[in-house]
C-alpha cells in the first residue's frame, strides 16, 4: 500500500458566500456568450446550441455544440471555460466526426466463434446484460468477486467503477498510471509531496524559460498547455527543448538539444551540477523549504557537463549555457514534468530529477512555475457502503512497487496469466483499447484467452473489443450525460456533460449500462436514482449550486483563488519531512537511491534504430482514427527516419517499409519520412495507427502500430510503470 | 536543404496538380486544326478567282470538315466541364480578361463563318447533295453573284481562324500559375501548328482522292470503301504540291516558334527555367523531342521536301505525321504545364 | 477596405484545428479542404529552421482565378476584396484551378470550383473566420489591411512579414510573420 504522504491532496473548501459569487459571475459570462438552449426538438432551419464538455481526450474542455436543422453542425469552445478559453483543439473541433462515424458500434454483440475472430451475433440489451450478469455471478460464486477486474479510462467510467465496487472487487485500474503519467506523479510526490495533476499545474503562460524534456507540446495537443505555450513563445520566453527529434516544440526553441535517447537523467544531473556548483539556485527558497540539500549538493558534484557529454551527446558548453539560462529566469523558469513518461524503466527517478531541478529553480508555488490548484467541494451521492473485498488488490503483490499509489494494469495482467496472488477470471474494459495501450500485446492476448468473461464497453469496435465475449456500444459523449467534472485547476469549476443529439442507433449511455448491469446483479440498492439527471441534480444541489444555471451554461466557475505562494497560498509540502525532499528518506528506507542515479541505456543491437513514439495533434490514443474529420487530417502515420540514415538504406520519403523489432515482430507497411528532423540512432512514429480490428474500416491497416512492436518493457522499480522506449527496429522495404 | 510538406490532399490537386485530362488537349488540337482550315479556306476565297477555286477541296471540304471537327472539339470540352448543366452560363456574359470567354464567343462566330465558306462552292463539290437540296445552289449562286459577300466570308474566316488558333495557345499562356504555359509564344505556336495540321489534313484528303494512277493503292482502297463522294471527283491535283509547300512553310515557322518558346523560358526566371526543363531534359523531354519535333515536324518536312522535288510520290504519311505531331504537342504541353509550378522554389 | 490575415508562424504548431473548423463551419466534403498546413524545414541536422504555415486562398488583389473565369462565377466581393465563387454560375472548366499558383481551389464534388471564402458569412455578422476564431495558439489575425489602426495593420507595421510567392504578382492578402 502507498505511503500515507503520497495520497494526500490539497483541498480548498469554499464557503456558501463564495458559491453565490461564483454563480453570479457565471451568469454574467454566459449572458455575454449568448443564450444556449437544449438541442432536442430543433425546428428545421434553426440552429440551437448546447453546452457540454469534450471527451476526445482527458482534458475535458468545455464546449458548445451547435445543431443545425436537426443535424450536429459544429462544436466550439465555451468562452467562459478556463480550460479551452473558448477554443477547442482539432480533436474537440472534430468531435462531430465521432458522432457521425459510420464505423461505430451500433448494437450489443455476443461472440459466436473463437475469441478474437470478431464474429458476432447482434443481441438486445437485455440479452447482453443478462449474459454478463450470469457470468459475473458465476465468477463471484466460484472465485469471489475479486476475480473480476475493471479497466477504465476517463470520466465515463465512473458508474462502471461504482457497479464493480458494489459487486465487490478492488481490482480497478487504468493505463493512465502505469503506462502514462504515473512515474511523473510519483517522482513529484516524492519530492514536493504532491503530483502535478491533470490538467497539469504548470504555469506556462507566465514562464520566462520553459524546458521541455521529450515533451512535444503542440503535437501533444493538451489544450490549455498548448495555448499557454504559444503565449509564452509569443512573449519571447526562452524554450529549451530536449528531444532526439526536432519536434514542433523544438522548432520554437532557442536551444534544441538532440539528446541521445535514454540519457535524460545524465543531462538533468549535469544541469543540477552546474546550478549547484555555480550557486545559481534559489538559496532562500531552498533554505526555507528544502530538506537534505547538503547531501544533494555533495552528490551532484560528480556529474559535470564533461561527464554528461559522452552519455548525452550534448556539448558541455551547451549544458552550461542552458543551465545558466534556466537559472537566470527563476522562479519563472519551468522544467516541464511531461505527461506520458514511461520510457526507460527509470522514469520515476528521472521525474524526480526533473522535480529536483524545478526545486533548485524555486518555482513550486511560484508564478511562472507551478501554481497551486483547488476545486469546488461537490459532495458525492450517498450510496450504501461498498462490500469490503475479502482479498485486497492483486496488481502489486507484497507491495513490490512500494510507491505505486494507483493500480497497475500490467500487474492485473500478470495476475491473470499466473493466477497469483489469486486468479482473475473476468475483465470488463471501459473505453480503453488495452491492445494499443499496454506493452507486449502478445501477453495481453494470452491473458485474454484465459478469461471466462471479457466485456468491452466502447464507442468504436477497437482491437480489444474484437476479443470480447460481449461488446456493449456506448453512446458518444455528445449523446449522453456523464458524471460532473469537478475540476482541480487554477480556477476551479464544476462542469456538466449533457446530450446534444440522440444516439444514432441502439447505443446507450455508460450510466445506463452500468446501472442496468447492477440491477441484473441484484445490486439495485446501489442505484437509488433512476435517471442520471436525478443523481447529478442531487450532487449539484448538495454543493449549493444551481442546477438550471449549470444546464444552461455548462459550467459554474468558482472564484479565482490565490494560486501562488506570493499571493498568500501557504507553502505546504505533504512529504514526510514537510519540506521539498532533495534527499528522500522514504526512498532510502525502501532500498532505492535517495537521490536519482543515472544508468546508461542499453545501446541496442548494431544497425537497429530505437523505436520512439509520440502524439499527433489531431488524434487521441488509438480512438480517433475512424473519425472521418480527423482521419482527413491524418489518415496514416509515417516512420521518421534520419535523412542520412535513409540514404544509407536506399530509402526515400514516400517509400513503404515494414519495421522488424528485436523479437522478430514485423509491422504493417508504413510510409518513410526521411528527414533532417531526427537523430540517426532512432526512428519515430505517431502512436495509435495500424489498426487490425476489422470493424475499424476507415483505419484498418492504415499506417503501422508502434504498440505491436513494443514487445519489451522495463518495469519501474519504484511504482511498476512500464518503460517502453527500449525496443529496437530495423527497416525493410515493403512490397507495394 | 529544404523539406516541404503540404498537409493537403484535394483530389486533382495533390500530390500533383492534374485537373485536365485528355479532353482539353483534344479540344485544343481540333480547335487549332479548324483554325488552320479556316485561314486556308478564307485565304482561297480572298486570293483566287472563282474559276480557280471551283470544287477545290480546301474551299468546301475543309470548312465542312471544320464544322464536324469543331463540334467534336466542343464535345470534348463539354465532357471536361464538371458542372455541365451550367454551360449556358458562358453566354450570359463576356469577361474581357478571360481567354476562355473570348474563345466561347469566337467559337459562336466560327460556325456561321465556316458554314458560309462551305456553302460558296458546295454545289460543285457535292453535286449529288446539291441536287437533293436545291436551296444550296440558290445560296451558292446568290453569294457568288456578290463579290462583297465572298470577300467578307473570306475575311471572316481568315481573321476568326487566326483568332481561334491564337486563342487555343493563349488559353494556356494566360495561366501564369503554370510557368511552362506562361509564354505568349504559345499563341502563334498553336496557330502555326494548327495551320500545318490543316494543310496536312487537306493534303492528306487530296492525296487519297487523286486519280488512281497517282495515289497509293491502300488509299484507293480506303477511299472507295469508307467514302463514296471523292471517287471520280475532278479535284485539282495541282493543289497537292501547293499544300505540301504551305505545310512545309508552316512547319518551319512552328519549329522556329518552338525555338523561341525555349529561349523565352530559358532566359526567364528560375521558375520558368525549371519548367522548361520538363521538356528539355525532364520527364517530358523524350516524348516531346521524338513525337513533336522529330516525327511531327522534321520528318514530314523532309518527306514533303522530296515530294516537292518529285523524288517521291505524294503520300498520306506526312499528313499523318503532322497531325500526330500536332496532337502530341497539345497533350505534352497540357500535361507538362500542369506539372510545372512556382511553389517548389518558394523559399522563405 | 481590404480584408486580410496576418499569421504569426512563430506561434503556430500546425495542429490543423483551422482546417477542421473550416470543414465543419462550411460543410467541406470528406477528402477535401479549403485550408491546409505547409511545413518547411531548412538546414541540416542539427542546425534546422522550421516554418509552419496555415495556408488558404490568398484573396489576392490581382486574382488570376477571377481574371480567367469565363462566366464571372469567380468574382471579387464588394466588401473587402474577398474572392468568391458563385456555384450557380460556375461551369467547372477548372481554368481558375490552373490559374492559382497556390493550388487553393478544388472542384467540389457537386461540380463547381470551391475554396476559402474568408468565412464572409461570418465576417458580415461581425465574427472572425472560423479558422481564426478556433486557433488555440491565436496565431491568426483577421482584419482590414487598409485600416492603419486595425490589428493586422499594426502587426504588419511592427513585424517582418512575407506573403507567399510574391514573385507571382498576385498581391496576396495573407501575410506571415516569422
Automatic annotation (TrEMBL), chain A:
Please give the CDD domains that the UniProt record associates with this protein.
MopB_CT_Thiosulfate-R-like
InterPro entries, alphabetized: Asp_de-COase-like_dom_sf, MoPterin_dinucl-bd_dom, Mopterin_OxRdtase, Mopterin_OxRdtase_4Fe-4S_dom, Prok_Mopterin_Oxidored, TAT_signal
Q: Does the keyword Membrane apply?
A: no
Keywords linked to the UniProt accession: 4Fe-4S, Iron, Iron-sulfur, Metal-binding, Molybdenum, Oxidoreductase, Signal
Q: Which residues form the 4Fe-4S Mo/W bis-MGD-type domain?
A: 47-103
Q: Which SUPFAM superfamilies match?
A: ADC-like, Formate dehydrogenase/DMSO reductase, domains 1-3
- The leader peptide range reads 1-24
Q: Does the keyword Zinc-finger apply?
A: no
Which top-rank group of organisms is this from? Bacteria
Query: Which Pfam families does this entry report, sorted A to Z?
Result: Molybdop_Fe4S4 (PF04879), Molybdopterin (PF00384), Molydop_binding (PF01568)
Family stated for the protein in its record: Belongs to the prokaryotic molybdopterin-containing oxidoreductase family.
What protein is this chain from? Molybdopterin-dependent oxidoreductase
Q: Which organism is it from?
A: Actomonas aquatica
From TrEMBL, chain B:
Q: Which residues cross the membrane?
A: 26-47, 59-79, 99-122, 149-177, 189-208, 250-271, 283-303, 315-336
**In which family does this protein belong, per the annotation?**
Belongs to the NrfD family.
InterPro entries assigned: Electron_transfer_protein, NrfD-like
Q: What name appears for this protein in its UniProt entry?
A: NrfD/PsrC family molybdoenzyme membrane anchor subunit
Q: What does UniProt give as the signal peptide span?
A: none
Species lineage: Bacteria, Pseudomonadati, Verrucomicrobiota, Opitutia, Opitutales
UniProt keywords, alphabetically: Cell membrane, Membrane, Transmembrane, Transmembrane helix
- PANTHER family for the chain: PROTEIN NRFD (PTHR34856)
Q: What Gene3D superfamilies is this protein classified in? A: Formate dehydrogenase/DMSO reductase domain
Compartments annotated for it: namely: Cell membrane
Coarse class of the protein's main subcellular location: membrane
Superkingdom as given in the UniProt entry: Bacteria
- Record organism: Actomonas aquatica
How does this chain sit within the bilayer?
Multi-pass membrane protein
Automatic annotation (TrEMBL), chain C:
Lineage top rank: taxon: Bacteria
Residues of the 4Fe-4S ferredoxin-type domain: 3-32, 48-79, 81-110
PROSITE patterns cross-referenced by the UniProt entry = 4FE4S_FER_1, 4FE4S_FER_2
Keyword annotations for this protein, in alphabetical order, are: 4Fe-4S, Iron, Iron-sulfur, Metal-binding
> Does ATP-binding appear among the keywords?
no
**Name of the protein:** 4Fe-4S dicluster domain-containing protein
What species does this protein belong to?
Answer: Actomonas aquatica
Q: What is the lineage of its organism?
A: Bacteria, Pseudomonadati, Verrucomicrobiota, Opitutia, Opitutales
